[in-house]
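INPUT
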Amino acid sequence: MFVSDEDLMMKCRKGDMSAFELLVRRYQNPLINYIHRSVNDYHRAEDLSQETFLRVFKSANRYEPTASFKSWLYTIATNLCRNEVRNRSRRNTYYLEDLVEEGEDVYHTDIMRDTRYMPDVLLEKKEQRQIIRKAFAQLPENQRVALTLVTYQDLRYEEVSEILGCSVGAVKALIHRARQKMKKLLIKAGIGEENINAKI
Amino acid sequence: MRKYKNTEFPHSHNSACEAQIASRDELSAYIDKELPAWKRYLIQQHLKKCRACAGYVQRLQKTDTFLRQSGEVEVSTDFLAGVLTRVSETTQHQRQQASLWSRVVQRLVPGLETSPRRWFRHVSILAYKLRQNIQTRSPIYIFALTFCVFTMVGVTLYPSRSDRFGQSAHAWKKSDAMHNEKLISFEVIRRDPPKRLLTTALQQK
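OUTPUT
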């Protein structure tokens, strides 16, 4: 039987750890991916995801079932990502993934791995992923958050508007601008419209 | 809202389409299925006729599909265990803090409610109610607030006698007694006939 997130959260509020565990299992994958797209560092993304779940647990008493759990969770994660990016720029810290030059392939996960014998398809996908990630990093913060939430987390515009604290109309405009800018950036990175079409 | 120039996006559907059924934002929302049914139907019908708009939507869809291919990272197997460990650590720490606090309170005031969280909750609820009542201009709270303000002004402008002289009650009694003595002596002086009257009487004699 499927139990809704809100019901699980109410159980968690009463101290049911199994309900909390189920929530973590449900959202660990999308949450890490969302944070990873924002901070561009896997280990930091894992830390921040753990921190997000910890905050959810701590503030379970304050949770009201009127609010959607999903948007509440992503609001916490978005705030943590914003803090992380702000602190990073203050400390002038760069992660290895950010320092990757165009065309190079030096993921920190790949340092120990010999990529010479990897299939071409994998390499191509990796390259493609890298280009998309770089293009995402160039978007303004609100546009990036809105587009990530809609494209990868499958959130509704209404939920995104709750997370960003703006109207649904504003989200509509943000998504559209983000898509247009992404298209321009991808064309600039060498993936023209024809290439996009060909790849699809 | 910021408006882009037409030159910024050369593939703008508005440049070719004159029907203006939907804005560009709405076409973007159309591919996300975020429009009401009637609007979706209108756009669907329009896309069948208008090649410019159909091309624009197709391009948006292709960009979106391309972005979705970016792949996902795998979650490590010990992630869940890590979260649960951190949660249990926090719970333990909270319990320790609560028990320390309850021990202190019990020693200070035996029999008192020892949950600080509950006290804090009561205080916060009271503060919230007070704030809400003031915001809604409840007559009782407005009266209470006015009374408080007037009392404070009154106390400031007309301080009590002890406050005025900065003396304790005991010292005030003493000074009051001395003051009475002075008054008595003053009365004695006043009862004496004035010198001027005495001299006139002597002159009459």
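end of record. Chain A touches chain B through 47 residues (CB under 8 Å).
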